[in-house]
TrEMBL record:
It is an enzyme of class 2 (transferase). The lineage of its organism: Bacteria, Bacillati, Bacillota, Bacilli, Bacillales. Keywords: Aminotransferase, Pyridoxal phosphate, Transferase. Pfam families: DegT_DnrJ_EryC1. The gene is pseC. Signal peptide: none annotated. Belongs to the DegT/DnrJ/EryC1 family. This is UDP-4-amino-4, 6-dideoxy-N-acetyl-beta-L-altrosamine transaminase. Its EC number is 2.6.1.92. One of its GO terms (molecular function) is transaminase activity.
Amino acid sequence: MEKNQNQSTVNSVRSSMLPYGQQWIDNQDIEAVVKVLRGDFITQGPTIERFESKVAEYVGAKYAVAFANGTAALHGACFAAGVGEGDEVITTPITFLASSNCVLYQSGTPVFADIDLDTYNIDPKQIELKISDDTKAIIAVDFAGQPVEIDRISMLAREHGIVLIQDAAHSLGASFAGRKIGGWADMTMFSFHPVKHVTTGEGGMIVTDNEDYYRKLLLFRNHGMTKDPNDLIENDGPWYYEMQELGYNYRITDLQAALGLSQMDKLDEFIKRRRQIVNVYNEAFSGMKGLVLPKQNPLSDSSWHLYVLRWDPRHFSADRKTIFNELRTLNIGVHVHYIPVYLQPFYRKMGYAAGLCPNAETYYQTAMTIPLFPKMKDQDIKDVIDAIKTVYSKYYAQF
Ligand SMILES: *Cc1c(COP(=O)(O)O)cnc(C)c1O
């Protein structure tokens, strides 16, 4: 009681931290999971295929293979693409670690191509400069939900005989030139982590139109093992199973698939709400000199996983860290996505060094993710805007 009274004297401090992202689980979701719990299969039952079909149909792809998480799915995609020792895979430094770690899992070499400072996505011109005789694949990441220039990147991949993998962890439901993400690349990965568009707790998926990749992904997800009589090299009898590749246990469960199926019913509403919030933010922050708002490629229709503001240091008397900490004090759960992957100690040990991708490093110095998720209430949105304006006025300095 006393605490609340104290807080109300401080202008616009929320009583609890607003996270940058959060799931939205309703009663339909809970009932769907409970129904599976009461049934015969809690893992490897029929719900997984229903979930796979639903996502494949939604994004316009022929096949889908669900995985235990998005990182495992990317690992599977690298395996199916044939990435191995001596192979280079081009990706962006402004991404989650998994986009390039999956290359290392297969003993390949990640090659980082710099970003475009307008969209924060990998720059097709930089990809072209990094292509070599050893380039096996490109992993293009739709940062913050905005699709990469997938038309140009597809063309590059085709010209050079390179496998194109799209890391669409941020962009389920987004489209490029009117076509949904999932229907463009050789393989496309979605993640169902709770901050992403729909959740299964942990979960991921690869969609593809290529039957050969599809079969490889199925093997890889399940110890490299098959029981399908058509695929067996030998057949000792009805018990017989055969391990043909080195695979993993990367399976998802029916429980999770039931949650995912139910969440998919709400995906379009979730995205609609995200876009609404983005419009409110854009309007509120437009004209605030020194704040760089997210720019959109006219061909891409983002599904808005993240809203990133950049603070141009020339306009503020405090650095990004001070501003960041102050917003956290106001209970606004700001974040930074991402630290350029190659600056991580593990990557530095392999020989990657600062200066490799100057745009990515500039971006990292100035970027800040502010809360964006469909369950945000109008008051939450107002709290974010008020807090940003408060901190902005405190530190804005005309030069
Ligand atoms: C979330 C994410 C992943 C990995 O997904 P998990 O399901 O958490 O393993 C990969 N790439 C990007 C860009 C992501 O944001």
